[in-house]
Specification:
Blueprint lengths: L2 H6 L5 H24 L1 H4 L4 H5 L1 H18 L1 H5 L9 H21 L3 H26 L4 H26 L8 H27 L21 H20 L3 H26 L4 H23 L9 H10 L1
Helix pairs in contact: 2-5, 2-7, 5-7, 5-13, 7-8, 8-9, 9-10, 9-13, 10-11, 10-13, 11-12, 12-13
Length: about 325
């Protein structure tokens, strides 16, 4: 093999390097925070997966924020024409995403950060995504993107609700329950829509049904898309109606972690010289994080965990 081609395999564009660097910093901060706070040690069984939710959500969020500084012109072009100062908003939102990701991972002013992120993604839906979908009602990808942003808003809102309750069931007030319920709808509706899309277009990537076709080098190929669709079908309805919602969201998060490992990590490795490979990996991980944050916001009596073990975890918090 040509030495030049070998060296090119390991040379990454600065945009990709910055995205991975910020991603790694937030992952590290999240892991350290979990250990210091004892969250990982107290969690039992699949509850450990719920503990990873803030980190899974925050790291991609911060990494996407870095792209506002490395692909500024492209991102600024997405701002509606009637809004002034396009470059300012691109930089400002990017900085906010990085700060919010670190805040949510380290739990420093995390409730405020989560609330503002939820509001930001909700505004994205109202100002940009929903109008785009309305102008292209027959384009399923506009629908998928709109509902993806809605789920991101729901994930942040779920984290804000969890932190508002302080992790203790007796402190779940009416406002907390309202926020958690809204977050549940914001995620359950996209899950059910994605279920239909995944069954109808199994040749596309699993998890979030976007434009990329599943590459042939992904082991199992269409199997993972059908698996995600089946999980959405079985677990989406309990999420929507609020029955065993914590259990449903936890198992749905576990399914998305599996999809992330078997499909998106290989894509990110093969497409390492392109920001597209990273974005697909991070995008699905953030959706997984949103689902796990929803699981953490649901009442513990909706969990599969044995009541005795559940009380022990609650006392430890």
């Amino acid at each position: 093999m040509n030495p030049m081609s070998v060296s090119a395999m390991f040379v990454l564009p600065s945009q990709v390097i910055w995205a991975y660097l910020v991603f790694a910093i937030v992952i590290f901060a999240g892991l350290v925070t979990m250990i210091i706070r004892g969250e990982w040690q107290r969690a039992r069984g699949l509850e450990k997966l719920i503990a990873l939710g803030p980190m899974f959500y925050a790291a991609p969020l911060a990494a996407f924020g870095s792209e506002h500084f490395t692909a500024t012109a492209e991102i600024a072009s997405l701002v509606p024409k009637w809004i002034p100062w396009h470059l300012f908003w691109a930089y400002f939102v990017g900085a906010c995403f990085i700060a919010a990701g670190l805040s949510m991972a380290t739990r420093i002013q995390a409730r405020l950060a989560a609330s503002l992120v939820a509001l930001t993604f909700c505004l994205f839906v109202v100002v940009m995504d929903a109008p785009g979908w309305a102008h292209h009602p027959g384009n399923r990808f506009f629908a998928a993107l709109t509902l993806r942003e809605l789920s991101f808003s729901g994930g942040a809102l779920a984290l804000a609700a969890s932190l508002m309750a302080g992790g203790e069931e007796p402190r779940r007030g009416a406002r907390t329950q309202v926020f958690a319920t809204i977050a549940r709808y914001f995620i359950a509706v996209p899950v059910l829509f994605y279920c239909v899309e995944q069954f109808m277009h199994a040749d596309h990537v699993p998890g979030v049904p976007l434009e990329m076709l599943t590459p042939q080098y992904v082991f199992g190929h269409a199997f993972w898309t059908y698996l995600a669709a089946a999980a959405y079908a079985v677990l989406g309805l309990p999420l929507l109606i609020g029955k065993r919602a914590r259990t449903a969201a936890t198992w749905l998060g576990a399914t998305l972690v599996l999809v992330e490992l078997v499909a998106y990590v290989p894509i990110a490795i093969v497409e390492r010289a392109s920001i597209v490979g990273f974005n697909y990996m991070a995008d699905t991980l953030m959706f997984c994080g949103a689902v796990l944050l929803l699981a953490g916001a649901m009442p513990r009596q909706d969990s599969w965990v044995h009541p005795v073990a559940d009380k022990a975890v609650a006392v430890g918090q």
